[in-house]
Amino acid sequence: MNNRAGSFLWNLGQFSTLSPTSRTGRLNPLGFCLPKIAYSNWNRKNHLLNDFDNKTQSSIRHLFQDASIFKTGGDVFQTKGISPVTTLTITRLFCPRWLSFDSEQSPVPADGLRKINLHPEASDEDILTKRTKPTPVNFKKLVQGNSLSDVLDSFSNAPTFPCSNYFSAMWTIAKRMSDDQRRFEKQLMFNHPAFTQLCEHMMREAKIMFYDHLLFSLYAIVKLGIPQNTLLVQTLLRVVQERINECDEKCLSVLSVILEALEPCKNVDVLRSGLRILVDQHVWKIERVFTLQAVMKSIGKDAPISLKKKLEMKALKELDRFSVLNSQRMFEVLATMDHRSDVLLDECSKMVIGNINGCPLKILITILQSCRDLRYRNLDLFKGIADYVVTTFDVWKLKQVLFVLILFENFAFRHAELMDLFMKKVVDERGFLTMKSIVPILHVYSSLNHPHGGPAREFLDAMGAALTGYLQHISSENLLNAVCSFCLMNHFPLAPINQLLQKDIIDELLMSDNKDRNAYKLQILAACLKLDDVPCHKALDSVLPSLPPAPLHPNAKVAELLSSLLGEGYFLQNVQLPHNHHIDFEIRMDSNRSEVLPLSDANAESSATNIQRVAVLCVPRSTYCLDLTHPRGFLAMKIRHLKVMGFHVILVNNWEMEKLEVKDAITFLKSQIYSTENPPAADVNFQSTC
What we know:
This protein is α+β, with helices and mostly antiparallel strands. Helices cover 51% and strands 7% of the residues. The protein has 30 helices and 7 strands. Helix 4 packs across helix 7 and helix 20 packs parallel to helix 22 (476-488).
């Protein structure tokens, strides 16, 4: 008897915690003006908490400055702001699960609290109600439905605790639908009479349901598309904050996934801060790799570096337990948290390469995107992915392969076999060349300086013909980009060039927001038209603005070495040439390149045919492809133009020169300046081009 009395008093205490102070109005959590659902066993006169109305306060705090309510008008959602001082008044309570009702009875309906019969004898009305009441439906039956409305119908007929089951069931059903069907079903869900009641139940139950049920329901609510600034979502976020210490590893994983799906707001930021504190305290207790990666993705890019380092150390400790999927996912995880760990990425790269067969191209693209965001370059990884794409080339769409090539171009990675295969496919299937694909294809091939040989000529002709077909529809800037790419590849389709040279198009380009970049590309076009002997009758020099001089970055070590090797007065430094070309050092020699001439004698005999001008270019890594042997597009064009102007070109790689001792560096420069033949690029550390 004492236990029964204690249980009853404890239940009354729970009701007093949940009971609001006012019943003057009911705020609909989503702003729907829908009819109330009536239940046969509800009688407002039998409210047990009337004596507590003036003593209790609402347990839900309203600090949601971003909260709003919305209602449907056709297919469009209309939002209405809620004042920060709005107070929620709930006139109907849902019975907590701890109340000792008969297990066969349904939970309290949304319109109020069920009458609790304290006497063992049941009235005839109660017996009749019990017999005619619908049987509650469990979660397994709920997910067997074909529509979201079926779940809401089950709720309205016989609501059960916890109501998180209904939201989880609706999301489970929605995942099986197509996008169009899901959109239509969600609209029906918002218009359903029971949907508002279900949302109210969810807010009332948030403080008493199991924490994992609360998180699963919040995840389902977010994925179902209920706006984040609604009172329902903000209330659940606040309750999740208050109960965050109840997190176990499973809840930690779900909470991390929820934070990924949410947009930044005050409650989300506070919740993420709480998650960081929790993870910092318990990171070494995380057992599952999946949970660890979910947490790493959710802590945010602005997390403390100490926390990122701690998570990195935990991941390195768990490397032996990484599956192939864990290794593939780690690239995206590190990119999301903006933390580059070369050791971790190197080990995961080995796992990816060793198990690449059968890997979906979507995952490989995600890996490449993450490497780009992290500025991580792994030649073996890129070669492994490119080789796999070549092997399975016929399986993929050309659009997918193009996306891979675009990502490779971001790394300056040139895979000759893949690019040759793509060229042949484009020539065979010219219908793939649309206005959206022409410009990126030309950019990739010109940037990596790839086209060579007979197949390249067919490819460039096909690209030129495709571009000509879209001249009436392409924008001026896209046309400029395409023509500039053709110029870098030493190919000049006349129809696109003639259209680009029209005065109105040039004026449009020079007046746009990108006028400096456009002017630079037009200067490249003008130089190519003159130096590459293109049969074009229009000149650009008279209409193009003069560009500012290129910033000078003289290589002090090379200048000192040339002074030691040749002596003062035997070379020029920072020479500006026509057509906006610049060279670091110029040396003048006899025609056999066996003797260096003093500048005074060379100037006196500048018109003689026995003078050979030598251009020394000090180039950084960025002017080469990733393998550091193949010059990229702009450097290749500059070498080509310098040859036309009569120069012999010597390339000095800055990063290699810094490693050499003075004696070795002088030996290298001497061999390049006085050499009559170009050694193969594979035999030396520095590439020289005649």
